[in-house]
Amino acid sequence: MKRGTPWGPVEIADAHVHFFSHRFYSMLAAQKGDGATAESVCEELGWPVPPEDPAELAAWWVKDLDRHQISRACLLASLPGDEESVIAAVRAYPERFAGYFFLNPLADGAAERAEAGLKAGLKGICLMQAMHGISVADERVRPVLDAAASVPGAVVFVHCGVLSVGVRKRLGLASPFDMRCSDPLNVHSAAMRYPDLRFVIPHFGAGHFREALMAADLCPNVLLDTSSSNSWTKYLSPPPSLEQVFEQALAVAGAGRLLFGTDSSFFPRGWHGAILEQQSAALQAVGTGVGEAEAILGGNLIRLLWQND
Q1: Checking CA distances to 179, which of 5, 20, 63, 162 falls within 20 to 30 Å?
Q2: What confidence tens digit (pLDDT) does each residue in 171-219 have?
């Protein structure tokens, strides 16, 4: 499946789609307490309650991706412990979805859980440094990275920079994140130690753009995910345009290590098509060629997650 772009028909693959399953909302309800349920949480948010069967929710996503002519997507299990939801989605539609899962590296049995999730068919582990108050370069994370390194083709997705979880804010849930752990230079340290593992930094480093570029420049196994509206640019003075962000990322990392993503998450909005339009316009403005555009908008992700088994 291809979609029309400024470069002609291109296969689009989204590197960053949150899979807000029924279990995900149940877990948020448990954190909220006071008898909250998945249904009451969705009602508070004004969003439809997803089906309890994750394969049915995956069918919602397939329909929405088809509507936008999006070929494939990487789904993220967005709370530790929700791996099974994304595993079910991937098993239902293996040609359309690959999956990552959030993991707290300090939790009991984290390394075993990492290996089990990857061997069950998921492709990547998501480490949220600020959320769990630990740098990916910390020695206590090594067992998890060792587990990932033991599974061929595994990816380690490391959130850096600003971490703000909109759904938690709307539900009044605390977000005691530690930004001191968010430096992409932590990824540089880990990537140097594990040269055969691929590390993905989302959102261009989410405010640590310079450091994310440093990590990518020094480590060929570090990739950058372009997802979200990239509103982190407001923290820089003067704020760079999206065109300037892409121009610099292309100059340092090259088109072969950029992964298009949207950070789509909830229904009824579904797949966030405006992000593709904005990023395509920026890429076109900086003179990106057809081959480079095809790689960034889908080819790189397809090779990373579907062609490296």
Answers
A1: 20
A2: 999 888 999 999 999 999 999 999 999 999 999 999 999 999 999 999 9
The set of residues, in sequence order, having a beta carbon less than 8 Å from that of 79 and lying 6+ positions away, is 24, 27, 28, 102
CA distances from residue 241 to 7, 28, 230, 231, 260 in whole angstroms, order as listed: 21, 35, 10, 10, 17
Asked if residue 308 has pLDDT above 70, the reply is no
Provide the β-strand partners of residue 127: 158
Which residue, chain included where needed, has tokens 């640590």?
208
The contacts of residue 178 (CB under 8 Å, 6+ apart) are: 130, 133
- Report the predicted TM-score, pTM, of the whole model to 2 decimal places: 0.97
Q: Are 187 and 222 in contact (CB under 8 A)?
A: yes
Phi/psi of residue 124, nearest 5 degrees: -150, 155
For the chain, domains (ranges, CATH) are 3-19+52-305 (3.20.20.140)
| Separation of alpha carbons 240 and 260, rounded Å | 19
Which single residue is written with the structure tokens 């600003």? 162
